[in-house]
């Protein structure tokens, strides 16, 4: 996501390093302008941003503690944050009685998928959700939502094909009220292009349902064109929020950068993939960081929180510290690391991580290694995992190798790694600080779990609490 813009800005900063202040500033501003255009940002947005940035950087600097490139980047960061809207804008839901969210947009932009994603998010917040398909002309669309609802365990209104959307929506709303649902998500029909009939239908629904939110779904892949469509849509139906989809498929970031500034409507969510989990609340601060590759530490921390069962991580740490860490615990630790997703994904969220990714040749290798280790551990019997000494027997090693599709040498490598960890536990008791440095430094095979790379160096429980 956004790689190209971030890379471009990074290169621009490197080029101005060491130049005289004025020359450097001009060169930086020109580079920013070019990169923003390349990102397919709306020309007016580029112009405004560059003007504001020029004014900001020309002011005799009050922050002489910063180096010029730090000052440039800080200025750019603040201006980008300004056009993205500074603060996250959460959904406005009623505190009691069902809230209605009308989801609108052109066909194929990801409306139905996004309705599913929102349902999942709200369900996970403990809300009772009702899905209402209103794309009555296409039975397949009704069925698509039905499938999503079944997968999510969320109720779907039995919309008859060919009914009248407003009538169906009102019936559903009445029932949701009676049964005390928290949120009703209406998935409306789309068109290939904006037309009168579609706008009329949406306006009619809006006026009849008086929804708390009219979420406009917009496909980021269309870049500037997306922004133009959004401008027309926003004049016609005044959405209360934008849900930007397929951001994963737009490495440029132009739509993300322009849409808020051009429509005045806050972006509330971002779709980042086809899976139902791929939805993020839009947080301008984090997006700015990612656009400029300042890393996404908050995102990473959240990912950790979701992937790692903190109770379990705490228990593992305790066992580790008390020297009771067996092969079972080892396996559980690897499983948790596996939950984080690919090392590449995690690294990509760290500051400068994109650059690192390019240098790191062997991330795939580290990941395969992790998987193989886990396969080997899983091929052992519970007894063996709890009593690692048993695994000293050659016959057991051969059996486990066969069971996990690896070689006895691989098995013995895993056991060696475990031995190293055992030694570290002992060190940890005697020289806690040095041992911890060893663990986190991850010198080659020295890291916890011995995978060297990022993630591999993280002992359980050292994620966020
Ligand atoms: N890569 C990517 N694909 C998406 C995203 N959201 C939706 N899609 C895909 O876009 C296509 C159209 O989605 P759909 O929800 O049926 O669009 P609708 O016609 O607006 O209801 C499907 O293939 C989805 O999987 C997203 O955030 N990222
Ligand atoms: Mg649809």
The rounded distance between the terminal residues' Cα atoms is 28 Å
Gross morphology: flat
CA radius of gyration is: 27 Å
Named once each, the bound ligands are:
guanosine-5'-diphosphate, magnesium ion
- Oligomeric state of the chains present here: single chain
User: Which regions have little confidence, pLDDT < 50, spanning 5+ residues?
Assistant: 435-465
Provide a count of the helices: 21
Mean pLDDT: 82
Could you give a short account of the major beta sheet? 8 strands, mixed
Structural class: alpha/beta
With strands numbered from the N-terminus, the spatial order across the biggest sheet is 3-2-4-1-5-6-7-8
Order of helices and strands: HHHHEHEHEHEHEHEHEEHHHHHHHHHHH
How much of the sequence lies in strands comes to 5-15%
The helicity comes to 55-70%
Give the number of DSSP strands: 8
Q: What would you say this structure looks like, in words?
A:
The protein has about 475 residues and is α/β, with parallel strands linked by helices. It has helices spanning about 5-15, 20-40, 45-60, 70-85, 110-125, 140-150, 165-180, 195-210, 225-235, 255-265, 285-290, 295-305, 310-320, 325-340, 345-350, 355-360, 365-380, 380-385, 395-405, 410-430, 430-440; strands at about 100-105, 130-135, 155, 185, 215-220, 240-245, 265-270, 280. It has an eight-stranded mixed sheet, sandwiched between helices. β5, α9 and β6 (about 240-245) form a beta-alpha-beta unit. α1 runs antiparallel to α2, α7 (about 165-180) packs parallel to α8 and α14 packs across α17. The chain is flat, with a radius of gyration of 27 Å. The two termini are about 30 Å apart. The model is unreliable at about 435-465 (pLDDT under 50). Guanosine-5'-diphosphate binds near residues 245, 271, 272 and 278.
